[in-house]
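User: Thanks for the earlier help. One more: Transcriptional repressor. Can you show the sequence and predicted structure together?

Assistant: Of course, both are below.
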Amino acid sequence: MNLETAIQKLKEKGYKKTRQRERILEIFVNQDQYIAAKTIIKEIQEDFPGVSYDTIYRNLYLLTDEEILESTELSGEKHFRLGCDTHGHHHHFICTDCGKTKPIDFCPMESINENLQGYDIENHKFEIYGKCPVCH
């Protein structure tokens, strides 16, 4: 997803284009990795010194709820990335050092569903963590 697509998606949902939202999205453009929330906050506050943590977090969660950003937790801290361009249902390998991701086309839910007969699964999230070839 690129900046224009993300902004257009927000407009279609009735959200205003703000300089802060646009700056948040710019941080993610051309990145293929998750970025720690504290890193995002630090960068935003350089451009908008008076902006509060709450405002930044609200925007990060809004962008996640609208499926423009994806989020995960690494080392007990929230990390975000721009939505993946890979089409269809997929999961990710996430490097625990640099945060880079690699799409995984396989979904383990078929095997899991066999073990949970009679259960009503509403959703799932599957991520694999480790070191990418560069960090290994």
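User: Great, one quick takeaway?

Assistant: Residues 91-130 form a domain with the Dna Ligase; domain 1 fold (CATH 3.30.1490.190).
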